[in-house]
Write a structure and sequence with these properties.
This protein is mainly alpha-helical. The chain has 11 helices and no strands. The longest helix has 23 residues.
């Protein structure tokens, strides 16, 4: 991982055509800014860059969700993050988080976790992980696809991090 910290420019160039580079950038950002309170600006900057890469809408949505999950912020910074995303939406005329998602987030903070939101987030993470696995290793066997689709959020997080250093599919799932 450390070798990529010194090659950030190369990652940015790769990210124009390779969403896996965005995932690596998110992981490096999370590692570099271990103190969650210091992550707001780097996270917003990564989102700004993501908006300019020209990915399809579905891929952007999945990457935004994954990056949001990988670069967690303290709850106190979430309103600042939401304001920054709204400004990015206006800058780039794209919706990062839909109105129903925004309403769900507000309710979730007030009432605790909303179960449907958590399930949707896990499904999106599973879909993105499967696309990344296919991109890196080729066709993913059905048994492994099913394992990803039925995984918990914690398992998906572990596998998403494992993929960065994995040489084989089995390396990814070696919890």
């Amino acid at each position: 991982m450390a070798q990529w910290l010194n090659r950030w420019d190369a990652l940015e160039a790769l990210a124009l055509a390779n969403p896996f580079a965005v995932v690596v950038m998110a992981q490096l950002t999370a590692l570099r800014f271990r103190r969650k309170a210091a992550r707001l600006d780097p996270k917003v900057e990564l989102m700004r860059r993501l908006a300019g890469y020209g990915y399809a809408r579905g891929d952007i949505d999945a990457l935004v969700r994954l990056v949001d999950w990988m670069i967690a912020l303290p709850e106190a910074l979430e309103p600042d993050y939401m304001r920054a995303l709204e400004a990015l939406e206006q800058e780039h005329a794209m919706t990062y988080i839909t109105t129903p998602e925004r309403v769900g987030l507000r309710r979730g903070r007030a009432e605790g976790r909303v179960e449907g939101r958590v399930e949707g987030r896990v499904e999106g993470q599973a879909d993105l992980l499967l696309r990344l696995l296919a991109r890196k290793f080729g066709e993913v066997p059905e048994a492994m696809s099913e394992r990803v689709r039925t995984a918990t959020a914690a398992q998906l997080e572990t596998w998403s991090l494992n993929i960065l250093d994995a040489q084989t599919l089995d390396d990814v799932f070696g919890d």
